[in-house]
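The following block was generated as part of the benchmark described in Methods. Ligand: norvaline.
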Amino acid sequence: MKGKDFLSVADLSSEDIRLIISNAIEMKAEGWSTLLSEKVLVLVFEKPSLRTRVSFEIAMRQLGGYAVYLSPAEVGLGKREATADVAQVLTRYADAIAARTFSHETVETLAKYAGVPVINALSDLEHPCQALADLLTIYEKKGTLEGLTLAFVGDGNNVSQSLMLAAALTGVNFRIASPSGYRVKQSIWDLAHELASDSGAEIFCTEEPSLAVRGADIVYTDVWASMGQEAEAPERRKIFAGYQVNERLVSLAKADAILMHPLPAHHGEEVAENILSGAQSVVLDQAENRLHLQKALLAGMLGGLEIPLSNY
Ligand code: CP
Ligand code: NVA
């Protein structure tokens, strides 16, 4: 993991993921350390962020390092300055770059030209940091990953694509209900099946939300229109109208099922208000775990932390 880029969940092996989760649990209990003293992370964001920005900045601080944030207005990737040039300049200052981009190609270009590891902090294709933090939350709530069933209801977007790969790698059965035309990309679907052949995870796609949710351990949803798709929001609201996660739908899942959402949420749209703030919702644990998981990820990528902390 040390020195490598993290652009997709599939850049990691199932062993890497298990190690990161175990280190994150340890770091959550331990709090602050000096594992990354004198290390610098630069955050280059083309889109807004609450959780990702704040959790990465605080993660670096809690590890003894430092973070510099470049806002959408400041960056101008490919506009004010060629993406390749930005990558090469930042390499002279930073030990790693975390980038939030519209196009996945932009984060790939940064990785190609940067001489330091690049982390995908969300692109149109994937949100791998979210997926890893979600596995940590699931593990904490359920005590295992293998054999669980996660039902994603909604858009085949960056969040669901990373989750599908993460589930396939770690043996979580993954069902996704999306309207036709809004399914996950074929390349992600194919890759997930390839990864699932090792872990034994079952991957299933339907247009019918109740088929996905019936008997599930985890019900997961995300916004219907992602950042950059705002103009499509009215049309998407109509197309996704039958995909709201509400009491009726959640009642089909297991009685102890948890409700997950990466946030920000559109209350009462993709998820009913009483479900989002209800007893089964773990959305704030998910948000908190972004911090702990990213500390373990950064320690692995920058500090060469390869064995669980408890073995030191
Ligand atoms: N879940 C998530 O990535 O949130 P932000 O867009 O606020 O970073
Ligand atoms: N799918 C959403 C996730 C935000 C964290 C988006 O890309 O806007």
